[in-house]
Amino acid sequence: MQYKTETRGSLSYNNNKVMNNMNVFPSETLAKIESMAAENAVVIFSVSTCCMCHAIKRLFRGMGVSPAVHELDLLPYGVEIHRALLRLLGCSSGGATSPGALPVVFIGGKMVGAMERVMASHINGSLVPLLKMLALFGSDEC
What we know:
Blueprint: E1 5-8, E2 11-14, E3 17-20, E4 23-26, H1 27-37, E5 42-46, H2 51-62, E6 68-71, H3 78-89, E7 104-107, E8 110-114, H4 115-123, H5 127-133
Helix pairs in contact: 1-3
Organism: Arabidopsis thaliana x Arabidopsis arenosa
InterPro entries: GlrX-like_pln_2, Glutaredoxin
Keywords: Redox-active center
């Protein structure tokens, strides 16, 4: 049996589910993530007690950027968002109590990735031009 699919971004929507990296999760969860990721130029999905999440928040704030931060451990739907983010990142598991693969950063509504990807972008010099492109700070900063 074949289903008609619609592609939006890099994800394929099939009926009421989203297929990505051979994982399936409700499209309502993805829609929530997309909505949250679009609310600010820089959005960080975090856990309030995670030291890596704290480091990423400090990195952006140190550059003069004010990210929207969603502390998943403090949100009633945080577990579902966390699981969906893990799947989007290609992670196969992660418990509700484990921060695994967090923080996840979105810039300009697009997922940059987890800590390693963001730090690699910062170190190789590609993060600042991306932020400048979004006019988050002037050319004399950073």
